[in-house]
Amino acid sequence: MLYKRSSALFTEAKKYIPGGVNSPVRAFNAVGGDPIFVKQAKGAYLYDADGNKLIDYIASWGPMILGHAFQPVVNAVIRKTKLGTSFGMPTQIETEIAKLAVSMVPNVDKIRFVNSGTEACMSAVRLARGFTGKDKIIKFAGCYHGHSDSFLIQAGSGAVTFGSPNSPGVTQGTAKDTLLANYNDLESVKALIDANKNEISAIIIEPVAGNMGCIVPKKGFLEGLRKLCDDNKILLIFDEVMTGFRLAQGGAQELLSVRADIVTFGKVIGGGLPVGAFAARNEIMNHLAPIGPVYQAGTLSGNPLAMAAGLTMLQTLFEHEDIYKKLADKTAYLHIGLEKALEETDLTYTINRLGSMISVHFTDEVYDFKTSVKGNNDYFKKFFHGMLKEGIYLPPSAFESWFLNDALTYEDLDKTIEAAAKVVKTL
Ligand code: PMP
Fold it and tell me: What is the pTM of this model?
């Protein structure tokens, strides 16, 4: 496959946009080479600027769970656009999507919409601090909660891919209020709570981590966090930006049967338009302005086009709950196929999977940040580029989960497995 046009577009983009991209992981720094410029996408396929067709395993990093350009979402956005694109005044559709979202997600009474996952997590932490009157938070090494200052402490995703898990520009004053624990390690959390008695407002976690590759919580880990939070008057924030409406209608809370106090969303909830949200029970949400003292706002929050896309997406998922089983089955099929391909080599590898999230690490046993960074990046790079040559688009970093979408067929999965079998032999 040729990528001449993409490379030319990238050269031009670099003149005007830092690094040529508006979000770092889009650049191929971690895997080498120039990023691919996409022209359009439909269903499970991307069509790039050079006319190549690729099977897509990032789904816009999660949102496109029903495939690209899903017709009902496209129609809803077109219909809404004709009525005006932003008012800065309340609209009925905001209540419709709020009502539906709250009915799908366990343990929440109210939801507020914002424009990104970053905003959702940043606002959730402010709300937790305002509600508890305490300043510190605990996050987990390798988890990513957006690029707000408090979270760029041992952050995963692009931050680790680009060597800046602790970004310059975050003041020491801010950093000191973010305490760092290890994923799947309750003792590390207990130690922080003991050393900071009555100072911790919230523990924020990706209930299934997707920003150090996919990492699944060990049995008892989330339950243990829940108990520690209850015992110490700490709020448990589930960052369900990736997992919300993806692992189940009610996200990881439903799939793993663990209750969170505040839940954040992004990605699927906006149907591919810029939407984030955070939700909690009344007692907590009523602390928000204009009824409470914790300030949070947004000119474009609840934007009608974004709400139309999100509402249509959630309605479809609500009416077709079988999608989750279909997605999990396809992901399991892919897992088995990849495993078979890798077993025939002498490579060391781990495949982690839950629901429609999966990733391949070239190391053994990955259950936290330390074990994920052990992955052999040279193998990952070769694997990524080998797959790309075969027409398969994987996340261009080992520190990202793959996301399957409902439009993928078993034929697509077979093609992917065949490609992997060929590529892993060359590593
Ligand atoms: N939380 C998680 C778990 C994420 O994966 C991301 C983005 N990948 C964010 C928060 C931030 O979302 P956004 O990029 O929409 O700001």
Answer: 0.97
Residue 154 has pLDDT above 90, yes or no: no
Tens-digit pLDDT profile for residues 331-371:
999 999 999 999 999 999 999 999 999 999 999 999 999 99
State residue 131's pLDDT score: 98
- Distance (angstroms) between ligand 1 centre and the Cα of 159 equals 12
End-to-end CA distance of the chain: 20
| Cβ of residue 266 lying under 6 Å from some atom of ligand 1 | yes
The secondary structure of 361-416 as a DSSP string is ESSS---SHHHHTTS-HHHHHHHHHHHHHTTEE--SSTTS-EE--TT--HHHHHHH
pLDDT for 167: 86
Long-range contacts made by residues 48-52, C-beta under 8 angstroms, separation at least 24?
A: 48/3, 48/5, 48/6, 49/5, 49/6, 49/9, 50/1, 50/2, 50/3, 50/4, 50/5, 50/6, 52/1, 52/2, 52/3, 52/391
Ligand 1: does its nearest atom lie under 6 Å from the Cβ of 117? yes
Using one digit for the tens of pLDDT, what is the confidence trace for 48-73? 999 999 999 999 999 999 999 999 99
> Residue 162: is its pLDDT beyond 90?
no
Q: Would you say the CB of residue 251 lies under 6 angstroms from ligand 1? A: no
